[in-house]
Design goal:
The protein is built from eight helices and nine strands. It has helices at about 30-35, 55-65, 95-100, 130-145, 155-165, 180-190, 205-215, 225-250, and strands at about 1-10, 15-20, 70-75, 80-90, 125, 145-150, 170, 195-200, 220.
Amino acid sequence: DVSVRTQSRSEKTDLLLIEVKDTGKGLSDDEVLKLFHPFSQADASTTRKFGGTGLGLILSRQLARALGGEVELLQSQSSVGSTFAITIDAGMSQSDARSFLKPAQQKAPSMSPGSARALEGMKILVVEDARDNQLLMSRILRLDGAEFEIAENGSIGVDSAVATHFDVILMDVQMPVMDGIEATLELRRRGYEKPIIALTAHAMREDRERCLGLGFDDYMTKPVDRTKLKSLLLRYKSAGLEQDLVSTGELVVS
């Protein structure tokens, strides 16, 4: 459940107060202490049932503070759920805040897609369990003209990769059922030679080296930047076209 109301800060201005109540697994006292630490989750295993990077709450708090507000845990009960409060100082007068809370009467303007379709002709497999990341990757790839499929865990990703031709696989590292590392090792064991790019929130140099040593061809950190992703995929597109020309005899490499 989500509720939005105003909270008086002074005689002239209000804060927006947003309360979010979920019906998830709830948090233990120990888990509450780790809540606002980056890359920290109640279940940190790579095959956990619930996906994500452990960055959501810390990023939400930073955004709220940048807007003069805060994100706080109001209460949590194991096996029942949690309630969070978000306050935002939007610089509104009390009358503006009341207008903001009224139901919108107009449709939001449609977003026009970007004109560049640099990835047209590429077929990409996205192996990613988190719904928000699936939507983001779909949006980026669609705007840039690529054809793509989504697999929600490593096991499905392996089956899709061996059954269908893909130019590149974008592989999340942490997923339930079968994580990205296990899936990549399985694909390489089966002789799969197409490029596999690791997607992970871990940005340390040793994390990159570890991924490259486990069969990944490249590495990209989350949140994914559209420009960087397109540049990386274009590199593999060019390499693939060159290889096709060599194999057909249209390009001679001396």
